[in-house]
Amino acid sequence: MSLKKIKLPRRYNYIACFLTLNCNLRCDYCINYYGGGNKFKNSIIAGKKWVEMLNRLVCPSDLPITIQGGEPGLHPDLIWIIKNLRQDLNIDILTNLCFDVDKFIDNINPGRLRRDAPYPNIRVSYHPPYMDLDELIKKVLKMQQAGFSIGIFSILHPQFKQEVLKTKEKCYGLGIDFRTKEFLGEFNAQIYGTYLYPEAVGNGKRKRCLCRTSELIIGPNADIYRCHHDLYKDLPPLGNMSDSDFEIKDIFRECSQFGDCNPCDIKVKTNRFQVYGNTSVEIKDVK
Ligand code: SF4
Ligand code: SF4
User: Fold this and answer.
1) Checking DSSP bridges between strand 14-18 and strand 215-218, what pairing results, if any?
2) Alpha carbons within 13 A on the beta-carbon side of 6
3) What's the pLDDT tens digit per position in 66-119?
4) DSSP secondary-structure letter at 245?
5) Which domains are assigned to the chain?
6) Is 228 close to ligand 2, i.e. is its CB under 6 Å away?
7) 3-class SS of residue 283
8) Cβ(19)–Cβ(71) under 8 Å?
9) Interior CA angle at 64 toward 92 and 234, to 5°?
10) CA separation for the pair 84, 117 (Å, rounded)
11) Substitution candidate for ligand 1 out of 19, 26, 27, 66 with most atoms within 8 A of CB
12) 209 touches ligand 2 (CB under 6 Å)
């Protein structure tokens, strides 16, 4: 039976496709572990099935599918998925670049991952305590020379902020786009990050509220979640990408987890037009 198209509301800003939550690294500040750990260790959906499900999406050209994880390079069909998604669906990738870049370059046309946006389409996360910088730079330059839109992103973690800033200078000198991001979450009993609803993060006291998302969050099992909090905690999903009649309801939903929200959902960030001041979710009636 063919699957019905899934139309995204015009106000949606992000499509996150978590091909896997497995990762080759284990950064101790990883936001994926905010909910207590990876609950999807054995969830790998074959590339053919992913393509069938993602090809249902109807979305504007300025709203790409962001393929991420965990580390999406660990999915055995990453290249096949990129090659077989509908050509009018734009694609971004978030990765730590652990995959074989030669194989990637040989198989993917850089034009497939290009779109008119003021940031690179392949965004490589750099984690100083866990990665070899020289190795990473070599891989990034190789991809760049092959014509890919690629850049490195690193968080300003209080423990290695200075190292990141030095690396930024080095990368600029080599002609690599390097951007820094705010550290989100807890370190030394302090909550870091700029949040639209500060009480929603790291608060022992849970409250009830109404919450509406502007993102399509698709987990490794193709379940669709209200928010990152629900994905990482594997709370009951809203549906699954393989439900033939699934449709997005752009509504406020009741939630009793305000206070335990994931920083990703509450942080102040840019929207897809790069306008600052946006958040993934809108919250009201907190009590
Ligand atoms: S590379 Fe990213 S996904 Fe993997 S452990 Fe580190 S922060 Fe988490
Ligand atoms: S209030 Fe927090 S936990 Fe609840 S749905 Fe919104 S973002 Fe998710």
Assistant:
1) parallel
2) 25
3) 999 999 999 999 999 999 999 999 999 999 999 999 999 999 999 999 777 788
4) T
5) 11-193+214-251 (3.20.20.70)
6) no
7) strand
8) no
9) 80
10) 22
11) 27
12) yes
How do 190-192 and 207-213 pair as beta strands?
unpaired
The size of the chain, in residues, is 287
Ligand 2 atom having least distance to the Cα of 265: 7
Question: What are 57's two structure tokens?
Answer: 């999406």
CB contact set of 233 (below 8 Å; sequence gap of 6+): 35, 36, 39
Q: Which amino acid is at 3?
A: L
Single pTM value for the model:
0.96
Ligand 2 near 265 CB (within 6 A) = yes
Q: What is the pLDDT of residues 16-70, one digit of tens each?
A: 999 999 999 999 999 887 767 777 777 899 999 999 999 999 999 889 999 999 9
- Dist CA 234 CA 201 (whole Å): 18
